[in-house]
Each structure stands twice: as structure tokens, then as C-alpha cells.
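Sanity check record (used in CI):
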Amino acid sequence: MLQTTVVPDTTVVPGHADGPEDWLARHGGELPVLFFCLAALSARHDRFRRGFPGAVTYAVKANPDEAVIARLGAEGMPAFDVASPAEIALVRRLCPSAALHYHNPVRSRGEIRAGLAAGVASWSVDDSRELEKLVAEGVGPGAEIAVRLKLPVAGAAYDFGSKFGAPPELAEALLRRAAATGARVSMTFHVGTQCADPAAWTAYMEACADIVRRTGLRLARLNVGGGFPSGRDGGDPALEPIFAAVARGLSRFERPPELVCEPGRGLVADAMAYAVRVKARRGAALYLNDGIYGGLSECPSIGVPRVDLVTDDGRATGPAQPFTLFGPTCDSLDRLPGETRLAGCVAEGDWLLFRSAGAYLNGVTTMFNGYGTREQASVGRLWTDPCHPLG
Ligand SMILES: *Cc1c(COP(=O)(O)O)cnc(C)c1O
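Expected output for ornithine decarboxylase:
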């Protein structure tokens, strides 16, 4: 009876729902709904391509939905950042001519062989043993090896450097060793996700330029990673100041490398919104039909995005009050952090519409306690507020 519908086009049929509120009023039922606006995805892709001073690629893990990958591929995406043989197979199937950047710096030997068989163009490394593994498996002349740097910089929603990346001295040694294999040498970094501070990119680019200068090598490319912010707070994310900082950072290099970025969140998050239904209200507590084991799994680590209340009877919204939001499972951890301000009239049957749901929602949902199924609907627009234009 309840099924997932993916409608991979954005044509708004007259009389057909054109936004999430209309769709929910007509079709809303028992399941949460992921609203997908392909026009918003294309607009954001254009904004990156017009503003970023280099090649724009896409980090598949942010949203591996086939409609997303196919759309970006159809728009000429030159390369995808992949982290596993399954992601490699997905991109090869949907976008056979795009290049593969295998930028998960820890790979088993079997994973390296799968990457070689698929013709991976670029490999990131942050450790000598991992580099020797690549060399032993035959990665060398003809491939690009990108040394991943880590610095203690702040500004992101959480720190990617705690897991991956080589500190500057090791990065320098890795660059020399990578050059000795005959590979094209590049550098890469990831400032941390949802990073709104252009200074993080500047700091990384300066450090990369210093390291490269010490080696005397010529860097083929500099991949400034992902980390670009989405409009989680309901505003328009400030991408252009970051693009400008990256363009300025290039002047630090004696021989400027080609630039690449590999956004995940910044490219896809704002193309989707997630509607979750209120199953019950008890005072200032709301019990929802999805939570941290499902589509809202990122909330405990980076907070709750802007939430709008959608009522089916157009009730006046009234003054906002703080609410505690619980997910549907019988597990007391299934609760969103802090309190969320919503109109005091919120009631059973209403919907909460979460912004920036296009990243780290598809692909990270579990079926814990029997929850985790959702509907997906294509809409012609996500928002009515003028402060949030497409893209
Ligand atoms: C996850 C990831 C990205 C994308 O990060 P966002 O914060 O979503 O932009 C880019 N590059 C690598 C290597 C990643 O692991």
C-alpha cells in the first residue's frame, strides 16, 4: 500500500502539488516524506561551476541517490569522489565517462584492486604504509596520488582531521615518495563539514604551498575538498566568499596547481527537505515518525536544522515555544538534541519540515525497530520564502 515514489523530473503539472505543503495536504500519510527538487540541485551545481575557480566534482557519500548522481553526470560532472567499491560501481554504471577519485585514504588490498580494475584516476594518501600498499598493488605512473594534509583548524561543524590527514612533516615526506613512484602528485584536504569560515581554506592552502615549496616539486592539482556549508539555518549559504578565498589562496603557490573541489553537503543538501509527522503530543514533548536512527541521524552531531511547521488546516501559527522532539523507536537515545522552537499550536497529525535534508540522510538510515521506510516525492519548489532562492 505504501510505496516509495521517485519522480525524476521537475515538471509542475497544472493542478499538481508544486511544493511540500501542497503535496502533504493531498497525499501525506503514515510515512515521512523526502522532498526532492531537481531544479534546486541544478541551480546549486551551476552556482558552484560559475563561482568555483576550478573543477567541481561531487562526494558521493553525501547522497548516493541515483537521480542525484545521474543528474550531476548529465550536467557534465567531470569526476566523483568515491570511498568504496560499491560507490565506484554506482558511478561507473550511471556516469561511465566520469573520472573516479578514490579519496578514502584507508583501503584494503582488495579495495585497491577493485579501484584499479575500475580505472580510478586519483588516490588520496595520508600514511606511508597506505602509500606503499598502493605502490605494491601497482598504482604509479599514470595515476594521480593526492597527499591529504591535516591542520588543527576550527570553523566546521565537526573536525574531519581527527580521523584522516597527515600532519605537515609527514605530508612533505609522502609527497616526495609519491613523486618518486612516477605518479602525478597533488595535495588535498578537508576543512570539516558545514564550514562557513573562508579562513579555514586559506589556512590549508597556505600550509600546502609551504610544504610544496620545501619539496621543490610541481603540484599538478590542489583538491580543496568538501566542507562547503548548506542553508541549514534557513538562510542562503555564503559560498562566494569561500570561492574568493580559494582563488586568492592560489597566489601562494610559485607554480599554481589546477584547482578541484569535491563538495557533498554544499551541493546537494538544499535540494531536499524532510517532512516528519507528529504522532503524539504530550505537553512540550512531540513524538515523531522518524528520529536519529533514520533520516535525522545527523542531528546529534551537528544540531537540528531549521524546522517549519506544516498544519493541514492552515491554523494560525502563534508564538513559538520550545519542544523536545522524540523519534519513534523504543530507545531513549532516539531524541533530537536540545529543544526546538515551534508554534505552540502544534498538534498530532501536523508535519515538521526539516531543511537541508539532501545530505547525509539517504544512505545513513537504519531499519531499527522497524522504522526507516519513507516516501520520496519530486516537487517544483521547496520553499516559499524569498530569502531562500533556488540554489
Ligand atoms: C565526505 C567527504 C567530502 C564531502 O564533504 P562535505 O562536508 O559533505 O562537503 C569530500 N571529500 C572527502 C574525501 C570526503 O570524505
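The two ends are 35 Å apart (CA to CA). If this sentence no longer matches the regenerated C-alpha cells, the check is flagged for review.
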